[in-house]
Amino acid sequence: MTVTHSQHPRPWIPGSNPKRIPSGLPGGQGCRWSLAAIFCAVISATACDGTPQEVSGGKTRTSDPPTNLLRLTPETEAKAALRIAPATTGDFRIFREFPATIQADANRLAEITTLVRGRADEVLVDFGQDVEAGALLATLQSGELGLSQAGFLRAHAKLTVAERAFQRAKALLEEKVIGQAEYQRREGELLTARSEMREAHDRLRLLGMAEPEIARLRRDETIRSTVFIRAPFAGRIIARNIVRGEVVEMTDQLFTIADLSDVWVIAHIPEKDIAFVQADQKVEVEVTAYPGESFEGRIGYISDVLDPATRTIRLRVVVANPHKRLRPEMFAKVRLWTKPEPGVLTIPATAVVHDRGENIVFVQVEDHAFERRPVALGEETNGQVKVLAGLRAGDPVVVDGAFRLKSELAARQHPMAIQ
């Protein structure tokens, strides 16, 4: 549009200071403009250029907020080495881990002592040795056992005499040679002898003599003051506290035998985690000696009483140990799983990045285009995290390379901050 100016001068406005506008400004050579006209021209020029600010309603409005959509060239995407996988639904379980120690099964553990004082004559086993039930572990020489055997032989002889006397008295009573009183006296002596014989026999059994040895003593009438220490069941020698020539007392613990085909794993569960303990749940045990390997166990006992000092309950897990790899006093870790929760949406934990106080993922919306999407997350287990909101099953999520996408999007949204 062409502007035509009048040849007559503009009327004078009080307070104004008209000046001649140089020929380079609108209006041509010699045209005189007021300050108000100049201000309007400046505003019009500003509105027409490419600056990002506008005047609307008396307020300055910045450009539109940065988009959450990130587009990449094929070359950039290939360089980022992205890996994409869909969000999936399925059974979801979480677990808790608790420190524990391995112990021998107390029902298959024997601490062997002697029932008579004596001197160690022979020690036939050593640490770590496997023994069968009834195997001879050591022998002792005991004067007390010799005295007990002599008492047994006296009781046996007295019983023999009493039996013969009773049989004679019985025959004489039938012949009416003796009276009833004499017969009853002989019968009483027989009953007393039998009682003393049983007492002597039981004492030898308490001192460790087996029935074959007692039968030999009755037959040969030869006193042998040797005490035989035998294994009560098959197992492994895990402790030995006796040496040859040592005098041992009845209170001394000579050997400890353990059947390690099963072991106990003892853990102490804090009060806040008691809900994770259930009688029929799966239990995994890991030990420091075998990293990356787990052993399956079953719960054998859950304490009914809370320890008031530690605020924990005692948990006992029974683990099969056929190859004897698990040994008492090893440090272990017990893993308790919850029951499966069906239909839970999960994604790999590597897909989640943190940005401005939010958990976000990147979802592929089309080829070479990815959307930044905030998500609400739940528990995490075995590298999978539960998604509460923000995704649907099947959404293609960037599981490797999400951090690079976050950095690229931030650089495009805030280039000056990145510089």
TrEMBL record:
The keyword Transmembrane helix appears for this protein: no
GO CC terms: membrane; outer membrane-bounded periplasmic space
Residue intervals of the CusB-like beta-barrel domain: 263-337
GO MF term list: transition metal ion binding; transmembrane transporter activity
Domain CzcB-like barrel-sandwich hybrid: 109-259
Example GO BP: copper ion export
Residue span of region Disordered: 1-25
UniProtKB keywords: Cadmium resistance, Transport, Zinc
Residue ranges annotated for the CzcB-like C-terminal circularly permuted SH3-like domain, each copy included: 345-406
Superkingdom, taxonomy of origin: Bacteria
Alphabetized InterPro entries for the sequence: Beta-barrel_RND_2, BSH_CzcB-like, CzcB_C, MFP_Cation_Efflux, RND_pump_MFP
Family: Belongs to the membrane fusion protein (MFP) (TC 8.A.1) family.
Function noted in UniProt: CzcA and CzcB together would act in zinc efflux nearly as effectively as the complete czc efflux system (CzcABC). The CzcB protein is thought to funnel zinc cations to the CzcA transport protein.
UniProt-recorded name of the protein: Efflux RND transporter periplasmic adaptor subunit
Organism: Nitrospira tepida
